[in-house]
Amino acid sequence: MLLSAQPKIIKGTVTDTGSSKISSADITIYNLKNELIKTLKTDQNGYFSVEGISDDSIKIAIKKTDYAPFEKMVDLQKEKELLKIILKKETQEIEAVVMTKQKPVVTRKVDRLEFNVENSNVSSLNAWEILKKTPNVTINNDVIAIKGGTGILVTINDKKVMLTGDELKNFLENTQGDEIKSVEVITNPPAKYEASGSAVLNIIMKKNKIEGYRGIVSSKYVQTQYAKGVLGVSQYYKKDKLSLMGSYYRGFGTYYREGTDFVNYQESQTRWVSTMNRKDKNNAQNTLNFNAEYEIDSLTNLSLNYSGYFGPKSFGTYVVPTLIYNSQNIAESDYTTINDHQSRTINNSLSFQIDRKLNKKSNLSWINYFTGNNVDKYQNVLTHLNFAGETPREDNFFTRNKADVKLYSTQADYQWKDKKLEVESGMKYSFVKTTSGLDFSDNESGIMQLRPEKSSLFDYKEHNFAVYSSLAYNLGKWNFKGGLRAEMTDLEGVVSEPYERNKNKYWNLFPTFYAQYTTESKHEFGFSYGKRISRPSYSWLNPAKSYYNLFSYYQGDPKLKATIIHNLNLTYSWKGWNLDMYYRKEIYPSMEISYQEPSTNSLIYYFTNIEKGQAFGASLYKSFQIKPWWTLILSENLEHNENYFKGTDGLLYKNKVWNWVSNVSTAVTLDKSNDWKMEVGHKYYSPGIQGTFTISSAWSAYFVMNRKFFNKKLEASFIVNDIFRTMGQKISTKYANQDNYFLDYGDTQGFTLSLKFNFGNQAVKNAKTIKKTDEQDRL
After folding, report:
1. Domain of 77?
2. How confident is the model at residue 71 (pLDDT cuts 50, 70, 90)?
3. CATH code of 732's domain
4. Exposure of 73 in the CB half-sphere (CA atoms within 13 A)
């Protein structure tokens, strides 16, 4: 009797049918009266131990998500050995959960729209192509716009990408979609984000949640006019508190673009027609990513991230014939330009972040990052001239343009949050230094020599200091959020030839406000306002003339003003319907425009500020689940856009248009067990404007098919873009004595075949329960 009354101990292990240990399983112990005695969880090795049981017999119940519930009566007088409990998978329930609780493709939040890429058809694409399919985002002529507004700030995990133009496109094309979790479209970014850019596109990368080691080997073949390809490997490792991720992708191939320029000079009654088919090779586009996270304890987390893009050599030779027609439409003169060129691009970004929980409601984070971007471009231009009434001759010049940008930034953020109230506050300091040099040499004197008067050195420095605070409040059906950000900018730009120094220092306040109301039947109504600033890219500030040929060049402006933008949005969401009505006002927007100079017969492209721009419109997005295996996606944007600019004659002109962008696609699941999916889609762009430019309409049809093989270890996708080769556009300028246009086709028609093989541990295991530290016990 005394032995029977002594406290007893029960020990055991919990595994699955494959002998894998199950951690964090919920264990409940009852007496014979079905009264609860103890509750506990298994440890990281699936082990459990219970002491102090006075009953002779008990009932033990074990529950774990994705496993069938387990119950057993245990006689503690007889059961002396270690209990070995095996849980079985509940296959049918898992499938039901996947079907009923799958995350929606688009989620509306109080301050942003989230496009979930993970586990969708588009995850087989690269980041550039994914942005084209993101709601409210359009990419036309390689310019990213959100609801018609350009000057978009692109961030990855809230860290600014220090690339623009072709470099940004190349970087995103070599960022694989299967590493992307979601894309956030933030029309009115909260005060936490820097105020630069008319809107923010934040690409959120996946975090490694799988214990052990796994890897992915991938390849991609792209056939347009010429072949291109990407090979890569990604590796992941997670053990206890340490998580590592590294990837390397190498792209190579030939890039092609067709264009024809038409310039009509009223003064001389001539028409200049140039045909340029640009063909460039780049056999070493290297993209690297590395991320390390370490959990010092349950309160403190460290992370280190590196990303790099190396394009050591892009090269090509353009042969550009130009015919000059007189008033009788007879070609009386001509010249041919041979442009031999190459370029090198290097971009390195390094960031270090530390996150610390201060108590149960608040945390502090500190992040530092450094970015270096280096571009070196060289061109040798030979021109054969055959003008009427002149002796045929040759002209030769070469240029070397080097640009080096360095950015350092440090930011501290504090957050306090409970069920209804959230407070954020922080500060940021950043410093940018850019140096751009142009060396120009020609054979004007009969021999090739440097021309200092046509060469230039441009130095630019910018200090930016910011403080912000925001408050969010959840009042039942209402969600409110408001913030204020103050930024001080101190800049200096120095041009060597001719010497010019521009210095400016200013403060700006950027308020934001959001309100969202949700009815009982889940109708969501939202309102938001935000003030933004779009600072010109550093290359736009460089006044050096970058010559395309003898009669055409590009030039920046060191006196470019920052653009102030006001965004106003009204939103409505219900059962997957997302409607966004908006108004946008831009003060001194900066953009690239062209003008022709009759005295020198030159066509000049340059960045400048126009007087103002404004637009209003509506965006609609809906995903229809017609059948469990059939989805239809509708994305529409209609806006009225106006640009006001001063012409070369000093008069104020107005360019306006109703612009419609339509994207309709449908996806079908052919075989659920093998994730065999097919998608076809269509995108239409009606005529648009950009400053002095009028842009013609265009449309494109595409086809996508994805399938998995060999127990889903091998993934294959086949994509056909611009099926009918309909993405060519006409960009024209016509006012006063300006009459020019060019036809542009970006080699978009083609197909892509992608293969990806997964190896190592691909099964997501339950996160281990980390023992609380003394500090966390006091929270």
Report:
1. 8-87
2. confident
3. 2.40.170
4. 6
Of 103-112, 176-185, 305-314, 665-674, least confident by mean pLDDT is 103-112
Asked whether residue 95 is assigned to any structural domain, the reply reads no
User: Cis omega before residue 511 (within 30°)?
Assistant: no
Task: Indicate if the alpha-carbon torsion angle 584, 588, 592, 593 is positive or negative.
Answer: positive
According to the model, what pLDDT value does residue 107 have? Answer: 82
Return all residues near 299 (Cβ < 8 A) that are at least 6 apart: 356, 357, 773, 775, 776, 779
* Residue 236 domain flag: no
Answer whether residue 99 is part of any domain: no
| Three-class secondary structure assignment of 31-86 | CCCCCEEEEEECCCCCEEEEEEECCCEEEEEEECCCECCEEEEEECCCCCCCEEEE
Would residue 99 be called left, alpha or beta, if left means φ above 0 and alpha means ψ between -120 and 50 degrees?
alpha
**Are residue 205 and residue 292 in the same domain, yes or no?**
no
When pLDDT is cut at 50, 70 and 90, the band that residue 774 belongs to is very low
Same domain, yes or no, for 520 and 494?
yes
**Helix (H), strand (E), coil (C) string for 282-325:** EEEEEEEEEEEEEECCCCEEEEEEEEEEEEEEEEEEEEEEEEEE
**Contact of 476 with 516, CB cutoff 8 Å:** no
3-state secondary structure 411-422: EEEEEEECCCEE
Q: Which helix (H) or strand (E) holds 7?
A: none
Nearest of 700, 627, 541 to residue 133 by alpha carbon: 700
CB atoms within 10 A of CB 419: 7
Q: Which region holds residue 750: left if phi is over 0, alpha if psi is between -120 and 50, else beta? A: left
**Residues 280 and 207 reside in one and the same domain:** no
| pLDDT for residue 1 | 36
> Would you say residue 274 lies in a domain?
yes
Averaged over 145-155, what is the pLDDT? 79
Q: What is the CATH number of the domain that holds 50?
A: 2.60.40.1120
User: Are 455 and 541 contained in the same domain?
Assistant: yes
Please report the beta strands in 358-420, taking only residues with DSSP state E, as ranges in sequence order. 362-386, 393-417
Give the confidence band of 473 by pLDDT, cuts at 50, 70, 90.
very high
User: What's the number of domains the chain is made of?
Assistant: 3
